[in-house]
Amino acid sequence: MTGPGVAPANTQFPHLTVAQALAKPELVNGTRIAAAGVDRALRQLRKQAGITEQDIIRVPALFSKIDLPDDYPRRDLTVTYLPDAANGISTGTGGYLAPAQHGPRQGGYDVFQRATEEALGRAGVRVRWIEDWDYSPTSVRPVATSTASPTCSAT
């Protein structure tokens, strides 16, 4: 490991790049489905609470579609693929403690963390990344040694 946090070898797709992420159909489809759900929720918030696009800070997220039995009563269910930045805590003093993303990397940087820092930074919020990988259930984030790739899309 080259610093604090979880060694890449202990993540499902170590050294995942953006290109590799975009080649994973389960992630592309899961993120597309989740993005449609977010859009529906935002339409309701605009209609019922009067929020506008200026009230929304968009951060990237990556979702995986859940495989369900044919007789399951619902379709197109997704699960957050990465520790979602939206699951952080505001400090109330201009800071935001967010779970480290473990997202695809480009130029040596986690693209999700960089995009989140930029989006929240425009609103005057400082992001501090908290390592919480070991607190997530292994059934959701299994450890693998494959270098296969997941998909990334920002919502």
Q: How would you characterize the overall build of this protein?
A:
The protein has a three-stranded mixed sheet, covered by helices on one side. Strands 1-2 form a two-stranded antiparallel ribbon. A two-stranded antiparallel sheet has the order 5-6. It has helices at residues 18-22, 25-49, 111-121, and strands at 63-65, 78-80, 89-90, 95-99, 105-106, 109-110, 126-130. β3 and β4 form a beta hairpin. The protein is an alpha+beta fold and 155 residues long. The longest helix has 25 residues, at 25-49. It is built from three helices and seven strands, in the order ααββββββαβ.
Descriptive key words:
155 residues, alpha+beta, 3-stranded mixed sheet, two-stranded antiparallel sheet, 26% helix, disordered C terminus
Order of helices and strands: HHEEEEEEHE
Q: Largest sheet, described in full? A: 3 strands, mixed
Look at the helices and sheets and give the structural class.
Answer: alpha+beta
**Order of adjacent strands in the largest pleated sheet:** 3-4-7
Q: Please tell me the overall pLDDT.
A: 80
* SS summary, helix count: 3
Our Rg estimate from Cα atoms comes to 16 Å
Shape: globular
Estimated share of beta-strand residues: 5-15%
Distance between the termini: 30 Å
The level of helicity is 25-40%
Number of strands: 7
Low-confidence residue ranges: 138-155
Care to give the gist of this entry?
The chain is α+β, with helices and mostly antiparallel strands and 155 residues long. The protein has helices at 18-22, 25-49, 111-121; strands spanning 63-65, 78-80, 89-90, 95-99, 105-106, 109-110, 126-130.
